[in-house]
Amino acid sequence: MKKVAAEVYRDIDFTRAKRGAVTKADPGKTKISIRLDNRILDHFRAVVDAAGGGNYQTLINDALLAFIQQKSMLEAVRQVVREEVAGTRHGARKPARARRDALLA
User: Fold this and answer.
1) CB atoms within 10 A of CB 63
2) pLDDT per residue as tens, the chain (105 positions)
3) Rounded-to-integer distance, Cα 52 and Cα 28, Å
4) Are 56 and 45 contacting, i.e. CB atoms less than 8 angstroms apart?
5) Could you tell me if 78 and 59 are in contact, meaning their C-beta atoms sit under 8 angstroms apart?
6) What pLDDT score does 82 carry?
7) What pLDDT sits at residue 5?
């Protein structure tokens, strides 16, 4: 086979070029690489397509954040229920609203 020489780009000046991403990441965000099931990617990409555009990675981030918030809310409710049950057993009850507000603060 004949070896083909790389085309020379004489009209492009790379002397001030920088390596790395073209745009900086938002503060509070970290670039990572993970492996996700194709079904997950297909779902989020389909949601973006149905909405007429957007970023499927942002939707995945929002779904993970919603899961974390839901889990923390569930733990707060469980804690209030535990205290209510324990309070009724021992006859001493604190106002549920004050405990709930303290847990959610």
Assistant:
1) 13
2) 555 566 666 778 878 888 877 777 788 888 889 999 999 999 999 999 999 999 999 999 999 999 988 888 888 888 888 888 887 776 555 566 676 677 676
3) 27
4) yes
5) no
6) 87
7) 61
Residue 56 CB partners (closer than 8 Å, separation 6+):
41, 44, 45, 47, 48
Residue 51, pLDDT score? 93
Which token pair is 49? 């397509």
**C-alpha span between 23 and 25 (Å, rounded):** 7
Query: Any idea where the domains of the chain sit in the sequence?
Result: 38-104
Cβ–Cβ < 8 Å for 94, 87: yes
Helices 38-51 & 56-90, crossing angle to 10 degrees?
Answer: 110
Q: How many residues can be counted in the chain?
A: 105
Rounded Cα distance between 28 and 30, Å, is: 7
Alpha-carbon dihedral sign for residues 13, 15, 19, 21: negative
